[in-house]
Amino acid sequence: MAQTLAPADASAPASAPSLSRYAGLLGAVLLVAFLAAFPHVVTSSYYVHLVIVIAIYAILILGLDIVVGYTGQVSLGHAGLFGGGAYAAAVLFLHFKLGLWWGILAGIGVTSAFGVLLAVPALRVTGPYLAMVTLAFGTIIQIFINELTPLTNGPLGITLPPARVLDFSLLGMQAPWGAAGRKLEFYYLTCAALLATIVVVNRVVRSPFGRAFEALRDSPIACDCMGVSVYRYKVYAFVISAALAGLAGALFAWSERYVAPNSYGFELTVLFLLAVTMGGRKSRAGPIIGAAIIVMMPNVLADIELVRIMAGIIAAAALVVGAMAFLRRRENRFALLVPIGLCLAFFPATLALQSVTDFRLTVFGLMILFVVYYLPDGIVGFVREVIPALRPAHTAEGKSLHAEGAALSAQSGGAGADPLLTVEQALMQFGGLKALAGVDLTVRPGTIHGLIGPNGSGKSTMMNVLTGIYKPTAGSVTLARAGGAKRLDGRTPSEIAASGVARTFQNVQLFREMTALENVLVGLHHSFRGNLFDAILGTPRRRREEREQRARAMAILDFVGLGPLAQVEARNLPYGKQRLLEIGRALALDPVLLLLDEPAAGLTAPDIAELTAIIRKIRDAGITVILIEHHMDVVMGLCDRVSVLDFGHKIAEGSARAVQEDPKVIEAYLGSPVADEETAHA
Description:
The chain has four domains: 42-265, no CATH class; 283-391, no CATH class; 411-500 and 591-682, Rossmann fold, CATH 3.40.50; 512-590, no CATH class. The chain is α/β, with parallel strands linked by helices. It is elongated. It has helices spanning 19-41, 45-70, 78-96, 100-122, 127-147, 149-152, 178-182, 185-205, 208-218, 220-225, 230-256, 266-279, 285-301, 304-327, 337-352, 360-374, 378-386, 459-466, 493-498, 516-523, 532-537, 540-559, 575-587, 605-620, 632-638, 656-660, 663-670, 673-681, and strands spanning 158-159, 258-259, 421-430, 433-443, 448-452, 474-481, 484-487, 501-503, 593-597, 624-628, 641-646, 649-654. Helix 9 packs across helix 11.
């Protein structure tokens, strides 16, 4: 039974038209036109080959961006995956005489399997540790290729013949476009692979899978507690990224017609990371720009005169940007002095050098430092910052948003029914410290159950035990459901969330770069039934689910008073609205039990009044609430029953009024009025 707590079809303000919608379409049209016309306008085989290499690198970097840009993982193993795809294609030809198409399938299949292996350490380590592990992985692949001579031909490498994309001889025919056209078959195959990759990546990142990737980057704990398994989606991200690296590697092998172990070393890894950071993460244009830079840069650095011309252009542009910043009195004008000075100093440095080729890695390293410090979002991010209209539109389906259907699902059961949640002798021990020392807790359905106590009493530890973040040392946690009682202790946070337990956090854990609407959609992740292939193919089911759940998400946002702010990124919301958004995201799980960890902390009086009204509406829908709160007026005004913890022990339990008058509670937490009066007169 559903109870509509937000008016159906309550329209939210339509998002402002975004130039990015048309810019993306225009960019796609221009890219297709450029790739189609280039070999006919520029007939040099050298430059055609450069475009092929740029397209191949862009395919890999588009996949790498899923890992680096969307999930926030640092991978230094993609050069090894690239080499694995190349060797898979080359070995198939060397030993079985299988051509291009079989090589592409082998490259994708082999590296996808490697992606699963590479995801295993990503499940346990992050940051620099993951970078070290993935670097070791890439190094192992290179050593393996070099030493397994009977299979890979060792250091000698493998030579391939010209690629046959379409073999008309099997039909007893000649290619209808003649010998000249045959030379371009591989070019157009590579371009088609690039365009297909762009479409696939775009569909994946704009689907529930993409939202899951971004969620686990911003807050893995909150992601798990929303029912989105961090482990599962890290594996998805690495497998997709590895498959694209394998595709790129296979195409590269047939493009170069030669593979060797030393072609896929650490330098290539540096170039791939440079391409991601410089081009701009979380975009489709960024990887293409980054690939063009790393492919063209060696050619540019080989010509000192061309380097000097570019250095002069960069210096002139820096002067213009600096002058405009000071004339317009921009706030960051003094911070621009350092990058402007570096750009100006680069020009006389090129005049003093006779060659830059020997300093190639140094130049790449300086470029990475420059981008990290001054262009953290890359070239695409910088352009979007300068031209806000080019920022991506967050509405994937339709130009307007509207609320539709029930915001919450009403839960059965009254306050006098059998317990919904039973905690028996919960023990949580950290070494010699007992954060929970055999705590019993019984929560009735349809009630607001307060959990109070001084700092360090074990309240948040209890929350973490109930949601699977901590596995209790001893004791049991049981949730009563329609199908029978279900033990929660020992289960993962995502499994507990799927059981109907949602929570907020003491310190707000929102997905900061995602909009309010997208945050709630992560909470609705359980409502999507489509698989990865639905996302890749853009099936009608995927589109229908997206529209339906966006309408449901808008209803939830209207319920918590955030409908007009649906398209605002979470990090840009006022603190009070962030608290409400976290509650809305938790409600999207359709919970039977909602855990609120100090939701009123840091709020103003009007915000607290709004919060208490929302909590009452949640209780009225039959959703049971466990409330941790230090504001005693909130506890007294909302809670039907209160449990008091002190040093991991439950010292009192009963109605809010009875607990407030309990001597043990007064002594441990509320303070003695007599003692306070004596202190005041001292």
